[in-house]
Amino acid sequence: METKSLQSSKEDVLECEKWWTFILLMYVGGFFGAFTYSIRGGVFCNAQTANFVLSAIALGNGRWREFLYYFIPMTAYFLGTFISESVPNYIKRHLRIRWDTLFLLIEMLAVIFLAMLPESAPYRITHVLINLIASMQYNTFRQTRHIPMATTFCTNHLRQVGIAASQALRHRDKNSVQRMLAHCRMLLAFVAGGTTAAVLCRYLLGKALLFTLLPLGYLFVDLLLEDIRSGKDRLARKPAGH
Question: Could you tell me if 133 and 42 are in contact, meaning their C-beta atoms sit under 8 angstroms apart?
């Protein structure tokens, strides 16, 4: 059943569902993670597990102000999901552009804003904004060729590698091998993005974030051209996983 699904998905996929789109976004996700950890307070903003753990620790130790602070990034992440879930239908009705494309423009503007902040600016500005755009990116780009994907963190990719490896060994299933390799590519892209950030941050500090405009800009132009060339029916079509 899965094999048939994967084969059929190769026939007609939206530009926002293609492998390389997810690989470049995963690269950007890795860059964000290393950026905030390296020079913006030693935290990860791509997901919320750490914030829930830290808020629980603060609550247990009676540090009420610290406990309440964690609701700020959590709320930003919630709003990112809410916006990216609510806006696409409006965009579809009123603009000749897909939400996926518009979001990349929003993400690039956020990157420029953060990169232009002085080094003395409070780290929390970066934390909140990256929480917001990471949430929107994760919720916007969900699936490629009928394989669910995350573009901002690695946990599920590593889990899926383990599942696919087990199935490939037990059942001699070529499709499982393909799925395993797909998730491995995402992990490698994330590591590559994080490595690039670690190197550039040493020399450029906050301006290093501007480097992500290269993959994001390339994706934006490609998706925009696809939108311009697409017919009305294709513009209205929902990406897989939505």
Answer: no
The percent of the chain in helix, strand and coil, each rounded to the nearest 5, is 80, 0, 20
| Interatomic CA distance for residues 74 and 131, integer angstroms | 8
Residue from 242, 193, 196 nearest 92 by CA? 242
Segment 173-196 shows an average pLDDT of 95
- Which burial class, exposed, middle or buried, applies to 213 when counting CB atoms under 10 A from its CB (0-12, 13-18, 19+)? middle
Question: Is the sign of the CA dihedral 214, 37, 189, 101 positive or negative?
Answer: negative
Q: Which amino acid is residue 134, in one-letter code?
A: A
The answer to whether the beta carbons of residues 186 and 22 sit under 8 Å apart is yes
pTM confidence score: 0.91
> How is residue 11 annotated by DSSP?
T
Q: How many CB atoms lie within 10 A of CB 167?
A: 17
Burial of 77 (0-12, 13-18, 19+ CB in 10 A): buried
pLDDT per residue as tens digits for the range 147-169: 899 999 999 999 999 999 999 99
Name the token pair of 130: 């990256």
Residues in Cβ contact with 25 at an 8 Å cutoff, skipping those fewer than 6 apart:
137, 141, 151, 215, 219
Q: Is 17 left (phi over 0), alpha (psi -120 to 50) or beta?
A: alpha
Tell me the pLDDT tens digit for each residue of 218-234: 999 999 999 998 876 77
Strands 147-148 and 143-144: antiparallel
Tell me the one-letter amino acid at 147. Answer: I
Contact status, residue 145 vs residue 10, Cβ threshold 8 Å:
yes
